[in-house]
Amino acid sequence: MVYIKINVPRLMIAAAGSNNGKTTITTALLKGFSMKGKKVAAYKCGPDYIDPMFHSEVINVPSRNIDTFMLGENICRYVLGKNSKGADISIIEGVMGYYDGIGHTTEASSYEISRLLNCPTVLVLDVNGMAVSACALIEGFQSFREGNNIKGVILNNISEGMYSYYRELIEKNTNIKVYGFLERLENCRLESRHLGLVTAQEVGNLSDIVRELGENALKTIDMDGLYQLSLTAPELEYDEPVIERKGSVNIGLAYDKAFCFYYRDSLDVLEAMGANLVKFSPLSDRKLPENISGLIFGGGYPELYMKELSQNKSMMEEIRKKVEEGMPVFAECGGYMYLLDSFKDEKDEYNLVGSAKGQSFMTKKLHNFGYVTLTANKDNLMCRKGGTIRAHEFHFSTSTNLGNAFTATKPESGRTWNCIIAGEDRFMGYPHLHFLGNIDFAQNFINKSIDYTKRQSI
User: What is the torsion angle, in degrees rounded to the nearest 10, for the CA atoms of residue 156, residue 162, residue 163 and residue 167?
Assistant: First the structure.
């Protein structure tokens, strides 16, 4: 590994809890700084896919996930340092409430990440229904844990007329600086569904929403003050991991409205190892890209597009044929659902690829939600028996065949269950992986894909 020391001006935008406006304020700041001519880098604490999509739409470069459970401390610092080179400011959106971590702890919380990254933090605060109690809330957050890095607040969903009142109240009764406010902007509300916000691709007027948020941020938020605060962050130190290039190979990457949940840094690892990621759409393309030697199917919302997916028979037939021939395939969550025999909703059953036996269906609750550690029960495409990687599950569907190639273990309770359909050339299951969590998994996939290329040329 190579030791790196780099200056990264940075801020974390956190909140007392979910639905306080972190994503709205973060998006407004990203656009506002961009409109001021700043080069901005964006990050999201935790395993969420959707918020980074909105960040990426604003700054036109990928947003990255920083997750201490799945990646470990050094890799989190590496992700920030690697992707902030050349940026004027890096903005990290927190997850849930500031201190909310795994189980009854602060592990993997925004607080822990702020401490790890030595990151000045600004709380988004919705003060509706509060007066002096807002000061007690702020002081409670400041005093709850040492090294919390909370340096200021931004008030959300208040009028310009009330801002002066709250600013004077807070700054008189606490040692916290108020960095401005954002009014309730009805035109900027985003829809939600069962896994959170709708994806950025589905918001037809997203550019208008983002522009309005940015314009309002420039009017009502102290952008210069926040930039100066970001400059107080100390130098970032980390060891750069070794990622070896093993050759060149074309990998088909399912990417459309049904399959769009990918960690950009995870894909970067594959590319650094020699993968040429060729995007294709199981929804609209009639055949796979030519000359590919591996397939990746990410998560997303396939349940919303089952009619279209099931009607694209030529695509499914070619995928089934390639998998039968031994082409390496990696499929997570929605991608795994697509490769099963079928999907059934309340009215219809849809025949799908059939590369693995089983049927998936939606339920009204989350299944196995949260972080897990995966341990291989046998040798497979991604690792040897006993190999481990940390992962995350977030799905309302389940299936009649969860697989048994791995054992999943919950960190907070120790509960275990079998999961993932895996063999020499396949890995299909509900858990979401990040290849920076165990680089060997990515290397094994690339090696198997290169081997497939060699076999086809014989």
Answer: -110
